[in-house]
Automatic annotation (TrEMBL):
One of its GO terms (molecular function) is 4 iron, 4 sulfur cluster binding. It comes from Actinomadura livida. PANTHER family: TRANSCRIPTIONAL REGULATOR WHIB1 (PTHR38839:SF6), TRANSCRIPTIONAL REGULATOR WHID-RELATED (PTHR38839). It is found in: Cytoplasm. The keyword DNA-binding applies. Keywords: 4Fe-4S, Cytoplasm, Disulfide bond, DNA-binding, Iron, Iron-sulfur, Metal-binding, Transcription, Transcription regulation. Upon Fe-S cluster removal intramolecular disulfide bonds are formed. The Fe-S cluster can be nitrosylated by nitric oxide (NO). Belongs to the WhiB family. The keyword ATP-binding does not apply. It comes from the Bacteria. It holds the Pfam family Whib. This is Transcriptional regulator WhiB. The lineage of its organism: Bacteria, Bacillati, Actinomycetota, Actinomycetes, Streptosporangiales. Its cofactor is [4Fe-4S] cluster.
Length: 109
């Protein structure tokens, strides 16, 4: 997809423009510090008018780092896994000899 230099992009409307990039790429040496950094970035994302577009972009390109669209890398991995997962169907009942009585075998079949 070609973008004209004058064409607007969703990122032109992001409220994080001009913010310290380190805020959105937290590096903490302890869990509380890392969580505080993530929460601060997510607080900015929460009020962003292009949050959905930002998240969609990060999911589409597989962005491995940083806070994008109010999500952490772990949250995006979860979203990608669940979006790509096929619909779940119940597994067939498998009875192993000695696991159930004869009446349970008949009802399972």
């Amino acid at each position: 997809m070609n973008h004209d230099e004058n064409e607007e992009h969703w990122s032109d409307h992001a409220i994080c423009r001009g913010a310290d990039p380190d805020l959105f790429f937290p590096i903490g040496y302890s869990v509380p510090v890392l969580q505080a950094q993530e929460e601060a970035a997510k607080a900015i994302c929460a009020n962003c008018p292009v949050k959905a577009e930002c998240l969609a972009w990060a999911l589409r390109v597989g962005e491995p780092d940083g806070i994008w669209g109010g999500t952490t890398p772990e949250e995006r991995r979860y979203l990608r896994r669940t979006a790509d997962a096929p619909a779940r169907r119940p597994l067939p009942v498998i009875v192993v000899r000695g696991d159930a009585s004869e009446s349970e075998h008949a009802s399972a079949a």
